[in-house]
Amino acid sequence: MFACADTLSKFLAVSYPVNQIAFARYTVPMLLLALVYGPRRGRALLATRQPGLQILRGLLLTGATLTIVLAMQLMPIAEAQAISFVHPLLLTLIAVLFLHERVHAAAWFAVGIGFAGVLLIVRPGGGYGTPAALLPLAMALCYAVYQALTRHVTASETPVNSLFLVMLVGAVATAVSLPFAHGRTDLRGALLLACAGLFSGTGHFCMIHALESSPASRLAPLAYVQVAWVIVLGAWAFGNVPTGWTLLGIAMVVAGGLVATLGRKTAALPSPAGLA
């Protein structure tokens, strides 16, 4: 679902500004969550013991969404997504430097392998060694910090409330920007924007139910299936087929992220981002 949302977002980015696409990707899931959980929870859906952290999480995830959609607008979707999946490597660095976690030696090796893979993707002559390659790295940084904060709120917040609050912050933040940049939306465009939000919202629903029945450490590696899907969908929708060296770089990023995730004592949550 996240791969479909990203592919459709890249298609929409030809005609619509990034903030309008992000608005749809936050507003539709927020409304879906309100419709499904609102009747049972009412105002309790907004309950939080850490409102400041929840707002900051929402702003970080919004930044991650904006940067990855902009990156996909300027780069092939597979390369942009692969670079953004260095976020487990950045989370490992954050965990060591700021959270004082201890990691296995294999995790440090994974960090090196992952970033070597990024350099292989953006290698000179590879076609992607441009400033645009910094956008998925910015996305990865935003999402890594978001994950670190998420670990602080999970002890006292429910997954549904945390996700609803993040979607609400994202919807409000992107709505504020609409008067300054938005495209004229016809019926077709509105339906496609709604579909992008629906794909994203469905992915979030699946993630919530998965986290309710399985530990995050078991689910985190499965997030990398998204990279395989965007390669397939990117080739089908846009004719973007990664070269051999680029595929090797993508494989190194994925391998590094998997080892880093499994090598840390507390695994990261699966990526919603298609977030972003």
Can you give a write-up of this model?
The model has no long low-confidence stretch (mean pLDDT 84). This protein is mainly alpha-helical and 276 residues long. It has helices spanning 2-12, 18-41, 51-74, 77-84, 87-97, 105-121, 134-153, 159-177, 187-213, 216-219, 225-238, 244-263. The longest helix is centred in the C-terminal third of the chain and has 27 residues, at 187-213. It is built from 12 helices and no strands. It has one domain (2-263). The termini are close together. The radius of gyration is 18 Å and the shape is globular. α1 packs parallel to α11 and α6 (105-121) runs antiparallel to α12.
Number of domains: 1
Biggest β-sheet description: none
Number of E strands: 0
User: Would you list the SSEs in sequence order as H and E?
Assistant: HHHHHHHHHHHH
Which segments are poorly predicted (pLDDT under 50) over 5 or more consecutive residues? none
Helix content: over 70%
Structural class: mainly alpha
What percentage of the residues does DSSP assign to strands (E)?
under 5%
N- to C-terminal separation? 12 Å
Please tell me the overall pLDDT.
84
